[in-house]
Structures are given as structure tokens and as C-alpha cells.
Amino acid sequence: MADESGTRDRHARPDPDGFFDRLDPDMCVVTAAAGGRRAGCLVGFASQCSIRPPRFTVWLSKANHTYRVARAARFLAVHLLTRDQRDLAELFGGETGDEVDKFARLAWREGHGGTAVLEDTAAWFVGAVLRRTDGGDHVGFLLDPVEWGEGRDGPLLRLSDAVTIDAGHPAD
């Protein structure tokens, strides 16, 4: 931050919004199954984090129903959506599993470890949960891919395509 004279104060905490506001990550739907319950949510915080071995991390909000199911899950499924699948993004981002069975509205199958794999997505994988990391209001799930597939073609759904979806889970 700069003071009135234009000199930067190297001890002031910077405002990262200028950086974060420029990001436009791919959105994905993460599904979890544990203890006879299924859940899924729209996720914007996710990334490949290792090449060899291949690893991927998804960050789930602690306020989200899917997080509560994922805490006990051994596997999570991660699905990429195409831009024309906004209805699916609205279902998984705008509804809460506390109130709605999202899976009753769409085609899915049981994947590795009992995880729900959504049909007709751009691509998907099921990953074994290797580690959970508390990151503040989200928890990161480090995944080791064990099953995967591809489906529909088209440009991927990005944050800018989904920014107007009101979160279905309660805000803290």
C-alpha cells in the first residue's frame, strides 16, 4: 500500500481483490457419498497440484452440505461442465442438499467407492481422498485419481458464467 506521498508501506497488508477479481477458473461439480448419504456442490476453488504423481485439490465450503458428507468420504468425484450446462450448475450451486435430493433430477451412476458419477459431463474423475487441509472457511481435499472418463464437447463453464448463481447453502 502507498501512503499519501506515494511511498509503499511494506508492512501493510495488501488487498488481494485486484488479483482475485481477475481470476476466472473452470467450475466443477464435486460429489461425495458416505454413510448412506449422497451430496454434491458447484466448486470454483479447484486445481491440479501435481504432475507426477497426478494430484488434484478441491476446496469445499464448511457451510456446505457436501462438505459434511465429504468429511467421512473416502472418495470424491469431480466433474467438469460445459457452458451450455448452466442448469446443472444452478442445481448444484443454487440448491442445498439439506433440502433437495439433487440426484433425483438427473442421470448418474455409482462410481468407484460408491461415489456418484454424473452422466453427460465434459469430463470427470473419482479420486481417493489422501489428505484434508483446513484453509479457513474452506477445506481442501487432496485427491489421487483412480477412475475417470470424458463425455460432451464444448467450452468449459467458468466462474464468469456462474457468478450470478445464488449459493444454496446458508451463508455464515
UniProtKB/TrEMBL annotation:
It holds the Pfam family Flavin_Reduct. Keywords: Oxidoreductase. SMART domains: Flavin_Reduct (SM00903). Residues 27-165 form the Flavin reductase like domain. GO terms for molecular function: FMN binding; riboflavin reductase (NADPH) activity. InterPro entries: Flavin_Rdtase-like_dom (IPR002563), NADH-dep_flavin_reductase (IPR050268), Split_barrel_FMN-bd (IPR012349). This is Flavin reductase. It comes from Streptomyces argyrophylli.
